[in-house]
Amino acid sequence: MGHMKKFSAAAAAVFAAFLLCSCTLSPLFTAKTYSEMYFGAPVTVQFDTRRLSKAAYEEIFNGAERIAANIHALTDPENPDSDVAKFNALSAGESVTIDDVTADILQTALEWGEKTNGYFNVLIAPVTRLWGFSYDLWDNDDYTFAPPTQAEIDAVLPLLSLENITLDGNLLTKNNFDEVTLDEVTLDLGGIAKGYAAGKIREYLREQGVIYGLVSLGSSSMELLKFSESEPWNLGVIHPRGTASTPPLLDIPAEDKAVSTSGDYERYYEYGGKRYSHLLDPFTGRPIDDGTMSVAVIGEDSAACDALSTALCAMGWEKAIAFAKTLKGEYDVYIAYEAEGAYRLYANVPASSFRVTDENFLVETE
């Protein structure tokens, strides 16, 4: 029997935004990381408070947290009162009325499922659990990982078909087909809810007159406002094979953009000398193992960036590169992978728009 080890990257290391300007006209940033965890991650909001009283900026912080708390409460599968948990408890053929917010998230998720040819899949939960990455197993110190058998994988794959659910306005139905029992169809919005929440918090900050700041949800989903009038944020993207002290693999200037990353370094088991990542292919029901290490996506829509970073990882680097070419000009995509014994990086942007810090990476750009 192989020996099992569990690994989890520090969430705050996935992304880092560094201040560039030290001039006297720079914004005066105040940051707050909330005591509660949302979406399994710490949430940090930071913005310019030069012209605000303490009472005024504390109320903005409180308003941002209310947004995160509400979306989390609606989508948390561990909360029996959430829309997601209520759907998961249904038998095939039954329906539940969901909140407008949940319906909006799910509709967006289904659209990106179609756009990515099924690689973004909100019904992946049965496979996630089978591989030990569901929250109840991952957080259980008594759980011992072992790869599932092919028969076990084949048994749950029918549950992943997006035809198993129907969303009609706010009515969500777990469909019933005579040829297969679908009671165990399970919804998981974790691959998009963080980005959706980050986007809603950015909208709220702008409504409050905030120009300079950022929103970070576990640092794998971020919304960048402006840094200053003359300088952008400098975004550092984690090295997928580095340690806590390794410099970021990429330095990317960015502002007024959403950012999301996914990578095989975030959560994985080692068993029998092999790494099993939490990034799962919804068609094979297996962790990606083609050499794909990480994907970063930058664009206008944070929910879309979340969905894309997950889907591109699940595709594997060859399909992901081909798909990223179709996104050029709309979403900036950075794919780190290993092939032919070398570390490689593909980006669908010009080489002049970012910096790679590790000279061992072979870089291909558009």
Explain this structure.
There is one protein chain. This protein is α+β, with helices and mostly antiparallel strands. It has a domain at 9-73 and 192-260 and 290-365: ApbE-like domains (T-fold, Roll), CATH 3.10.520.10. 27% of the residues lie in helices and 27% in strands. The chain has helices at residues 54-75, 83-88, 100-115, 125-130, 135-138, 150-156, 193-207, 302-315, 317-326, and strands at residues 4-8, 15-18, 29-33, 43-48, 95-97, 165-168, 171-174, 213-217, 221-224, 233-237, 250-254, 257-263, 267-271, 274-277, 280-281, 286-287, 292-299, 332-339, 342-347, 355-356, 362-365. The protein has a nine-stranded mixed beta sheet with strand order 3-4-8-9-12-17-18-19-21. α3 packs across α8 and α8 (302-315) packs antiparallel against α9 (317-326). 43% of the residues are buried. Residues 10-24 have low confidence and may be disordered.
Percent in helix: 25-40%
Report the end-to-end length measured between terminal Cα atoms. 46 Å
Number of strands: 21
Q: Please report the number of helical segments.
A: 9
Main pleated-sheet profile: 9 strands, mixed
* Rg for CA atoms: 21 Å
Query: For the residues shown, what is the average pLDDT?
Result: 92
Q: What would CATH call the architecture of the domain at 9-73 and 192-260 and 290-365?
A: Roll
Structural class: alpha+beta
What fold name stands as the CATH topology of the domain at 9-73 and 192-260 and 290-365? T-fold
Fraction in beta strands: 25-35%
Strand order of the largest sheet: 3-4-8-9-12-17-18-19-21
CATH class of the domain at 9-73 and 192-260 and 290-365: Alpha Beta
Unreliable segments of 5+ consecutive residues = 10-24
Shape, principal axes of CA atoms: globular
Q: Name the CATH homologous superfamily of the domain at 9-73 and 192-260 and 290-365.
A: ApbE-like domains
The succession of helices and strands, N to C, reads: EEEEHHEHHHHEEHEEEEEEEEEEHHEEEE
